[in-house]
Amino acid sequence: MTARISQTQRRALLATILAASTFPCRAFSQRSPGNETNKQEQLGMRIKLSFANRTMTATLHDNASARDFASMLPLDLKISDFGGNEKIAYLPRKLTTEGHGPFDNEQPFDLCYYMPWGNLAMFHGAYKHPGLIRLGRFDDGFEALLVPGEFALRIERIG
What we know:
The chain is an alpha+beta fold and 159 residues long. The protein contains 3 helices and 8 strands; from the N terminus they run H-H-E-E-H-E-E-E-E-E-E. Helix content is 18%, strand content 36%. The radius of gyration is 19 Å and the shape is globular. The protein starts with 6 loop residues before the first helix and ends with a strand. About 18% of the residues have low confidence.
């Protein structure tokens, strides 16, 4: 048995393939259209993370996961070293992953959410992993990420 595709179906399929190859950033990533650097728009919300008598600040990006994270604040968690290039902290519940997509400009001092485990990932070294959603970027105080050990962590809004 052979399936026949009508001329209209063939044109629709071709248009879909052409659109997906022409505009992949709109279909599959967190990239803002026309922005080759893959920099997300900021939500404008700043947060403060405090541990080991140190304070860091970060600005959240405008995505569903970052907004969900912000709705949970303030939080008291535990922060610990992981993998030699990051600190992690487990959230009380998983965040929404609605609208997430890959990004390709990973940098130290990104604040991310690791979907499989439901934890925050705070990078102080190079990284690349497909299971991450970038929540924001550290503004200052990120040298605290280099302090080894496990500590009580307080996260709250500051703006």
